[in-house]
Design goal:
There is one protein chain. The chain has two domains: 141 residues, Rossmann fold (3-Layer(aba) Sandwich), CATH 3.40.50; 141 residues, Alpha-Beta Complex (Argininosuccinate synthetase, chain A, domain 2). It contains 13 helices and 14 strands.
């Protein structure tokens, strides 16, 4: 007897991906394998498994990728100080390449002919997933239900769910809910009242941070330790990448740090308004720039600043596995072996202050910067230096 064709679906266990799972079964006469990547999002493994089993799924794969996500995706991005359009720390963007890579690995393991995702036809994620799929599995078919099925509204999905006895969360009846994406690095919230940029973001949508007004009246302090350009510990205690980010999320969140309300330009040409929370990532960005300021030379730092906008744009658009991103990463990581030491941060009601920087690096010279007279800096050369640059004004 000929075995059934197989499709690996990126499955969250929620309403949308459950509907997609059933739709794939009906339209492709295929066995659907439910795949979930644990990258630190809020998730109920028992619920995911039970919901998949109710839909007749035999193979349910849940992979813990939290440390890989932070070490191999978040940390390289922090080394590049990547910020899209001045404010967005790329929390959703950086997660998709890893999910796509592991999903293709699972597809190859099960000899699936296709992979599928639940990204809508108006968003960036469909691009990010599919560029990753193509890089690791160019011969594997991609099925994007939102671009091909005939269901065009939330009410259509609700009707389909009722018809197929798929559980419908109470908050998803009627008006569309807020669209939420989260992982260990960030949480994003879009939709409903947020779609109109004149509306103030309601406080109840924030999940990882309290408002600065309600933050403690006393400051908190934290020291982040760095080795070869990456965080390696908190307060001189070595912890895993995932645990480090988790601890920083908690500390920054309770001090009202990491909130961003932005209108971004999506890759496909649509403007989108959302509220993003990246508490621990915001601390890492501040601390990394601070440690580089006392360990790297001017030319290296300025070169990194020059390539950052392009680097961030590549990540946002889904080009994590592109030759250009790899090339820029090499520029970013040049001399990262010199970035060692620690940075102490003061956190207070939504604000971050650099409290101190410590390193054994000799890039910062106390003798040269001292206002006391010394022989390590030849001031007589300054006049020639200025006259040289005067000529560039003509």
């Amino acid at each position: 007897m000929k075995s059934k064709k197989k499709i690996v679906l990126a499955y969250s266990g929620g309403l949308d991906t459950s509907i997609i799972l059933k739709w794939l079964q009906e339209n492709y006469a295929a066995e659907v394998i439910a795949y979930t990547a644990d990258i630190g999002q809020e998730m109920n493994k028992k619920k995911i498994i039970n919901n998949a089993k109710k839909l007749g799924v035999k193979n349910i794969v849940i992979n813990d990728l939290r440390d890989v996500f932070v070490k191999d995706y978040v940390y390289p991005m922090i080394r590049g100080h990547a910020i899209y359009e001045g404010v967005y720390l790329l929390g959703t963007s950086i997660a998709r390449p890893l999910i796509a890579k592991d999903q293709i690995r699972v597809a190859k393991k099960f000899r699936a002919f296709a992979v599928s995702h639940g990204s809508t036809g108006k968003g960036n994620d469909q691009v990010r997933f599919e560029l990753g799929y193509h890089y690791f599995g160019p011969k594997i078919k991609v099925i994007a239900p939102w671009r091909i099925w005939k269901m065009n509204s939330r009410s259509d999905l609700i009707k389909y769910a009722k018809k197929n006895k798929i559980p419908i969360p109470k908050d998803k009846k009627g008006a569309p809910p807020f669209s939420v994406d989260d992982n260990l690095f960030h949480t994003s919230t879009e939709g409903k009242a947020l779609e109109n940029p004149k509306n103030f973001a309601p406080e109840f949508i924030y999940q990882r941070t309290i408002s600065p007004e309600k933050a403690p009246n006393k400051p908190s302090f934290v020291t982040i330790n760095f080795k070869n350009g990456d965080p390696c510990g908190i307060n001189s205690k070595k912890v895993s990448p995932a645990k480090l980010l988790e601890k920083l999320n908690q500390l920054a969140g309770k001090n009202g740090i990491g909130r961003v309300d932005l209108v971004e330009n999506r890759f496909i040409g649509i403007k989108s308004r959302g509220v993003y929370e990246t508490p621990g990532g915001t601390l890492l960005l501040y601390a990394h720039r601070a440690i580089e300021s006392v360990t790297l030379d001017k030319q290296t730092m300025h070169k990194k600043d020059e390539v950052m906008p392009r680097y961030a744009k590549l990540i946002y658009n889904g080009y994590w596995f592109s030759k250009e991103r790899f090339k820029l990463q090499r520029i970013i990581d040049n001399k990262r072996n010199k970035v060692n030491g620690s940075v102490k941060l003061k956190l207070y009601k939504g604000n971050i202050t650099i409290h101190s920087r410590q390193t054994k690096s000799k890039a910062y010279s106390m003798k040269k910067v001292s206002f006391e007279e010394n022989k390590t800096f030849n001031k007589s050369n300054i006049e020639r230096f200025i006259n040289f640059h005067k000529k560039k004004l003509i």
